[in-house]
Write a structure and sequence with these properties.
The chain is α/β, with parallel strands linked by helices. The protein is built from 10 helices and 13 strands. Strands 5, 6, 7, 9, 10 and 13 form a 6-stranded mixed β-sheet that branches. Strands 3-2-1-4-12 form a 5-stranded mixed β-sheet, sandwiched between helices. It has a two-stranded antiparallel ribbon with strand order 8-11. α2 links the parallel β2 and β3. The longest helix has 43 residues. The chain is globular and about 60 Å long.
Length: 309
């Protein structure tokens, strides 16, 4: 099996540099590495070309988003005639161990050779301090999803993530879907899914991808022996821009996959969430700038819910 590792970059060469240095030993072990750069302005592309000449670098020249950049890298690899039969999507703000991706590659080959349906394999994710980061999610009901607007963040997370279930492979546990911090799949499955929806600039693109994968009968599995450290890079967008983009992407994906009911559920959740954040923040509004910022953000998000398109 030959795997193409895809990293999307947008500035922050320091993160990419650390990740690539962990990946270089894999180049002689059945892996290729490709970078899709979303218009970095900190000389990321030049530095990668100078310090990592073995890596394929593809430039988009402007920020097209995570999904579009991944699609672009896969297309360019095919156009260049690079041979690969599997794909690993990997965040550039991660530190893989030497065996992290080979274990995923072996699990993918093992599973797909013995099962009629294909699988998407992911590692366990940990933060820099060793704390587990849940990268998996359950099939939460609409009712519980709306109720999450009334729950604390930690309590809501319990309902969103659920728990993993055993598979017939002792090292693999199954989830309903897994986020795109790191995902390995066959090239044939990627092509059946059709890559990412490029209308989604940021947020929920991996949920949309996962739901379309499930329509192809794909299963989501975590290789429990494979460990990946996720540093968690920052975004240059302002908080209000991030919040608006998040809510717009949520509504788009819910409507795309569940029609009018999904759109209504998204609106109800966002209404209750923002209304509660405003109400609970108003008594402290004049005393704390952070509360002022949060209340202002949710006030703008409420207006967007009722804005006619």
């Amino acid at each position: 099996m030959k795997t193409a590792i895809i990293l999307v970059t947008y500035n922050r060469f320091d993160l990419t540099n650390a990740c690539l240095r962990c990946l270089l030993p894999l180049l002689n072990r059945g892996f290729e590495i490709a970078i899709a750069d979303n218009g970095s302005t900190d000389n990321t592309v030049q530095k990668i070309k100078e310090q990592f000449p073995q890596v394929h670098v593809f430039e988009l020249f402007s920020n097209k988003g995570f999904g579009a950049a991944n699609n672009f890298a896969v297309r360019r690899l095919i156009e260049k005639g690079v041979e690969f039969d599997s794909i690993c999507l990997l965040n550039n703000d991660t530190i893989p161990k030497m065996q992290t991706l080979p274990l995923l590659q072996q699990a993918l080959s093992r599973y797909n050779s013995s099962h009629p349906e294909e699988a998407i394999i992911a590692p366990r994710i940990k933060s820099i301090n060793g704390r587990e980061q849940k990268n998996y999610y359950t099939d939460i009901s609409w009712f519980q999803f709306v109720l999450n607007a009334f729950r604390t963040q930690s309590m809501a997370a319990k309902y969103l993530h659920g728990s993993l279930t055993p598979s017939d492979d002792p090292t693999l546990l199954e989830a309903y879907w897994i986020n795109a911090v790191c995902l390995m799949m066959s090239r044939s499955l990627w092509e059946k899914i059709g890559g990412f929806d490029e209308r989604i600039f940021m947020y929920y693109e991996d949920m949309d991808f996962a739901l379309r994968a499930k329509k192809q009968s794909a299963r989501f599995l975590i290789e429990m022996q494979s460990i990946l450290t996720h540093l968690g890079g920052g975004s240059s967008k302002s908080s209000i821009s991030q919040a608006i983009q998040h809510d717009q992407s949520q509504e788009y994906v819910f409507y795309k996959h569940h029609g009018f009911i999904g759109k209504i559920v998204s609106k109800k959740f966002r209404f209750f969430r923002s209304f509660l954040r405003i109400v609970t923040g108003l008594p402290f509004y004049i005393f704390f700038p952070s509360v002022q910022e949060r209340v202002n953000i949710h006030f703008n998000l409420l207006k967007i819910i009722f804005k006619k398109k």
